[in-house]
Design brief:
437 residues, alpha/beta, six-stranded parallel β-sheet, 16 helices, globular, 13 strands, five-stranded parallel β-sheet
Length: 437
Amino acid sequence: MKLSIFGLGYVGCVSAACFAKDGHEVIGADVNAVKVEIINAGQSPIVEAGVGELVKEMVAAGRLRATTDAREAVNSSDLSLVCVGTPSHANGALDLTYVKRVCQEIGAALEQKKARHTVVMRSTMLPGTMAEVVVPTLEVYSGKRAGRDFGVCVNPEFLREGTSLKDFYAPPFTLIGADDEETTALLRRLYAHVAAPFHVVSVQTSEMVKYACNCFHAIKVVFANEIGNICKALAIDSHEVMRVFCEDTKLNLSSYYLKPGFAFGGSCLPKDLRALSYKAKELDVDAPLLASVLPSNRRQIERAVEMVLATGKRRVGVLGFSFKAGTDDLRESPMVALIETLIGKGLQLAIYDRDVSLARLFGANKEYIEREIPHISQLMRASVAEVIAAADVLLIGNKAEEFRAVEQLKRADQTIIDLVRLFAGRTSDEAYQGICW
């Protein structure tokens, strides 16, 4: 396959060398004539172990060259990978100057090209950039239609400086955001030599995944540093703490908690966050990430309240209000906070939770409900059917299996607000609202 790679910075240079190594004929394109001259001389414009040697080898083999002529690059290839930078403006917004310019150049080249061409965006771009900037620019300058006359897709890179060659051939996955089978098939061929799961998703999903990854990595660094700062103030070895922490691959380093949904609750997480945040203050250690977690969690409860109020309906049925299905624990349940807020707004509520039966409650849970929320007991119903009959909005608060019957039992005029994604794969529409999907 013949490739053109636009932007010979870090990602572009490494990608060009690696794809050439895989047997593709690669032409790099860049407005910087110095970078082009360096590559054509068999040298690398970036400094990293192994990259210079690979560039030299591929140029000598005739599989890699570079040019400043965008039209030549497009005409000499079947597929163009765009690896230009997307730096920040002072206010944090993306500077898409380079993306727009390269799309103009590629579009102008496509105007005269008869063979089908595919444009692959490797640059990191916010969701919506393909639809709002890349595709319109390519179409205007080419006079052609994306998906019909040329292919487009998003293919985020996951290369770390210092280990890029290893990362190229052993990524966590290869991610393709494409809307047509022809483009997807072409990218499968391109990555045939990369041993990694191959995921095909929507264009906007692929744009968002890269940001989710990088933001999470940033959060992990800050979290470890805040724990480390507290540990140092307590004369505890922070590396030993985090070593043991990372041994837990069931919860700590796993996908278990990484599912968008409602707020967390229970007798442990809120209490322990407050305790450690308070201890940090006592030690005069600033821990803004830890301090922000409970307010952010509370905001998810407020979001659910806003969703209910936005329906304009006054009768609300709540299905499940312990903090987790299969338990009767109501302590710090976000559903209890949500219910109390809705009551305070003057809404009429009917509540059902098989695991929270007043006749069976005892100990701390009984004491909690009698002391903190005695008024809620008067709103409880004996079955899902009773709640449905008494409501216009149905709030699903946990994943009890019996709540799946709601879709069949509900009336056509009722709205479901799902806080836990009980119905996997479903997204918001007129009759169904997911809290964050």
